[in-house]
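As a warm-up, study this chain.
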Amino acid sequence: MTPKRTAILISGRGSNMRALIEAEQDTYEVVLVISNRPDAPGLDVARALGVEGLAIDHKPFGADREAFERAVDAALRARDVELVALAGFMRVLTPTFVRRWQGRLVNIHPSLLPKYPGTRTHARALEAGDAEHGCTVHLVTEEIDAGEILGQARMPILAGDTPETLAARVLQLEHALYPRCLADYACERLRGGP
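Now compare it with the structure written out below.
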């Protein structure tokens, strides 16, 4: 079976992107990295790893989010992309884009969903007095952080943890979980799954 042609959308340094590229399996192949920020350090990382890095700056599109996403969609389709992984992509996608890529759009979120969708997840876990925290890989739907869960990784919250220490420890979990979940999901799709 031919690996699923995969693109990764980023906005920053791309540490999860790097984990996905370096862990490539027989089920997916990263062929493109797109950033909405031309200065994103992750673009240089992708290029150094032999993957095309493309900047599509969202700023010239102003408030027209759909026009920006049409440019992203055109780049994905021009390269025959089959799966899209969000890895620190700091833009909320419109329902139009999500519907167009439904079932082929995957995200990683730094909480144990359904707990703490959205932002400030580490601080919210601490404020709630949670005993554990972690991350979730899920399919993207029109509702933020509400899609089918593909996998989770958990860890205890330690005495003295801060949002920053939690973020650093959760990021390590993400680097292991995301490639495994993406590979499993790509395998399912290769076998004719949803």
